[in-house]
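User: Please predict the structure of the protein below. I'd like the answer in structure-token form so I can feed it into my own downstream comparison script.

Assistant: Understood. Taking the following sequence of 231 residues as input:
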Amino acid sequence: MDHHSKEIAAEDRIITHMNANHQDSLIRYLRHTHRLSSFRARNAHLTSVSYSSLTISTSPTSTPNPHTYLIPFDPPMTSYTEARTRLASLDAAATSALNVSPLTLKKYIRPRGFQAAIFILVIIFFLLFPRRANFLPGAYVYDLVSSNWRYGESVMWFCFIIQPVYITLVLSIHIVEMIYMERSRLRKYNVPRFGGLWWAWIASTFVEGWGAFVRVDKLMREKEKKAKAEH
């Protein structure tokens, strides 16, 4: 293989590797260098690499006139053998500037066990509490609870009394938790805003609250432990 063929093969390997394994780094490059939002950069993929720069597109691969962005190497590389170190340096600079983790949250984990029970109970709450009449005689819920539980009538009356304040309070708490999840976890762990994964965690947090935080933290601790073991 001549020198030119080796250069082309090296470039292809870098592009394939970055797109397959490090799309999160490409997103960070764009967010840091070109000030793109995580949403605008969410489809980032490397289209070319040279000694002097990277070219990253945020458009689908089939787009006739894709949006592309140049990320310069300063100083330029002298060989593609430098690529790994240079790319790692770009990512470290982006991570520091953006104040995010080098680790990326890439999947949603549904609640299980006790967390699943809490999730279901909160769903039931959200279905029942918005309508105050659910706790009055004649309502299905009232009749079901009062006829099958000794303290059912007292509980239904209590729910009727607190409903206006309680539903507002609970909704406010869950909205605050949702905002805190976005700012303290999803942004930190490079989840593109408004993407499918972002919505999954946000919706889950709105319903269950703390359980979503527990799962995110556990998952990222495991990723951090694995990353340290690999190095």
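That's the full token string. Strands lie at 45-49, 53-57, 68-72.
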